[in-house]
């Protein structure tokens, strides 16, 4: 298993996995956000590849200035982690988190954080099992200024 920074050749499979993970978003939104991540200096996507270069999943990360429950800046943030179903429960999640932690350290982070949907109990248990501590439960709101 290896993680490599996303390249444009991975965009189609990355998008398919994102659509599975982030339900309810328009196709165009995914495409715009993927391009934004790809071109960003404080965001990144890593593709998880098997030894035979099959795409197993992805890791999306960012550097945030402020995260609830964390002091200091930047904070490494796991925006999304996805494993194809056939690779789940085999220990790859732990390896991905270890990779993220090391990448965050190289970026000057002292903490890393993430979130999970309120009804995604599997994700909550996964993060708790690997040492994350719950900080808050919230419902987020947005209002367009345009």
Label this structure with key terms.
146 residues, alpha+beta, Aminopeptidase, five-stranded mixed sheet, 33% helix, globular
Overview in brief:
This protein has 146 residues and is of the alpha+beta class. The protein has helices at residues 11-21, 27-39, 92-106, 121-129, and strands at residues 2-5, 43-49, 55-64, 75-83, 112-114.
Structure write-up:
The protein has 146 residues and is α+β, with helices and mostly antiparallel strands. It has one domain (2-129): 3-Layer(aba) Sandwich (Aminopeptidase), CATH 3.40.630.30. Helices cover 33% and strands 23% of the residues. The chain is built from 4 helices and 5 strands, in the order βααβββαβα. Strands 1-2-3-4-5 form a 5-stranded mixed beta sheet, sandwiched between helices. Helix 1 crosses helix 2 (27-39). The longest helix has 15 residues, at 92-106. The protein is globular. The relative contact order is 0.14.
